[in-house]
Specification:
Layout lengths: L6 H10 L5 H8 L3 H13 L4 E3 L5 E3 L2 H17 L5 H8 L3 H13 L3 E4 L2 E4 L1
Antiparallel strand pairs: 1-2, 3-4
């Protein structure tokens, strides 16, 4: 039987322990790492924003920082058409996973589109 892990429990742990890893969250909350990993993307949709750096450490992500990252990604796409996610991540200084999450949001908003593996500004 699967146990329900509230998203707020993960977010609360990260707020108290910025820079933690999935394994630390899982150990502290008494759940498998896979449970935490599966729920991390849902935090963004729930408005409990987190980001992961290239060392797989997880940090709280304020709304203002989210807007700044969006603007940096759009600026990069304005200057360099047709970039892979990893290239964008290197230029803006965040993990590829974080860029992927932001790009999906930008695509849904009609601000960016993907052709194959390359991203472009609308």
């Amino acid at each position: 039987m699967r146990s329900a892990l509230p998203l707020a429990a993960i977010y609360g742990y990260v707020m108290e322990h910025p820079g933690c890893r999935i394994a630390q969250i899982a150990n502290a909350l008494g759940v498998p790492r896979s449970t935490v990993a599966q729920r991390l993307p849902k935090l963004d949709a729930a408005g409990l924003l987190l980001w992961e750096d290239d060392n797989r450490r997880i940090y709280p992500f304020a709304v203002a920082e989210r807007k700044q990252l969006r603007d940096r990604i759009l600026g990069v796409l304005n200057r360099h058409a047709g970039l892979k996610e990893q290239e964008i991540a290197g230029l803006v200084g965040v993990s590829r996973r974080t860029v992927n999450d932001r790009l999906r949001t930008l695509r849904a908003a009609g601000s960016a589109y993907k052709h194959g593996v390359l991203w472009f500004r609308v």
